[in-house]
Design a protein that fits this description.
Blueprint lengths: L8 H16 L5 H25 L12 H20 L5 H18 L9
Helix pairs in contact: 2-3, 2-4
């Protein structure tokens, strides 16, 4: 029979603390959610651009030119994109954010009432 490993109370407390702090960082207002969505959009765009930038790069490199290079490079470009978007990006997130806020305000006002002809 195999013994089940005992749960260390310190690990459980640390995991619970991490979950609580992560939950506290979640966007709660519509404006915060719109900002987070805009940054995510810019991150995806930047990731695509970075992947294209590295597409022609070959060679032996630190991974020996194996299939691991492609996997590692995809993680690298994803982290580059997230970091760029989080630190201001190239301005796409600001435009997307303004468009989302405008759309939200237009939807909250409801459809425009047609004016009567005189």
């Amino acid at each position: 029979m195999t013994a089940t490993p005992a749960l260390d109370p310190r690990l459980a407390a640390a995991a619970a603390g991490n979950m609580v702090s992560a939950r506290a960082k979640l966007p709660s207002t519509p404006a915060e959610k719109a900002r987070a969505m805009a940054q995510d959009f810019e991150s995806v765009f930047l990731n695509t651009m970075f992947q294209q930038m590295f597409a022609g790069v070959g060679g032996d490199g630190p991974m020996g030119g194996s299939g691991a290079v492609g996997m590692w490079r995809s993680f690298l470009t994803d982290e580059y994109a997230k970091t760029f978007a989080k630190n201001g990006g190239i301005g796409i997130a600001d435009h997307v954010y303004r468009a989302l806020i405008e759309r939200q305000s237009a939807q909250s006002q409801g459809p425009a009432q047609p004016q009567k002809a005189l």
